[in-house]
């Protein structure tokens, strides 16, 4: 999943951020979109495994994946609707 998402995210930032701010945009994506979640996820995952076991850890992956799928479906539907004429 990361192998497909990362190039798309870098391309998105490169297209939507002005050239003079591109380095800042890519740095923000890499630090907030990759670095911080990795740090938090590793610590949280270790805590879950230590106190609840691997089964709970993988169950939480399922819950977060389903939440992401629901958010995607809502936004995809909202963005695909055409504005209504007055």
TrEMBL record:
Q: Quote the subcellular location field of this record.
A: Cell inner membrane
**Keywords, comma-separated and alphabetical:** Cell inner membrane, Cell membrane, Membrane, Transmembrane, Transmembrane helix, Transport
Q: How does it sit in the membrane?
A: Multi-pass membrane protein
InterPro entries (UniProt xref)? MFS, MFS_dom, MFS_trans_sf
Does the keyword Acyltransferase belong to this entry? no
* Name of one Pfam family that matches: MFS_1
What PANTHER family does UniProt report for this protein, alphabetically? 3-PHENYLPROPIONIC ACID TRANSPORTER-RELATED, BLL5896 PROTEIN
Q: What is this protein called?
A: MFS transporter
């Amino acid at each position: 999943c990361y192998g497909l998402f990362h190039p798309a995210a870098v391309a998105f930032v490169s297209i939507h951020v002005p050239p003079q701010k591109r380095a800042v945009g890519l740095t923000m994506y890499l630090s907030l979109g990759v670095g911080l979640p990795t740090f938090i996820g590793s610590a949280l995952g270790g805590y879950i495994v230590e106190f609840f076991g691997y089964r709970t850890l993988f169950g939480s992956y399922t819950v977060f994946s389903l939440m992401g799928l629901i958010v995607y479906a809502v936004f995809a539907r909202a963005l695909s609707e055409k504005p209504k004429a007055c």
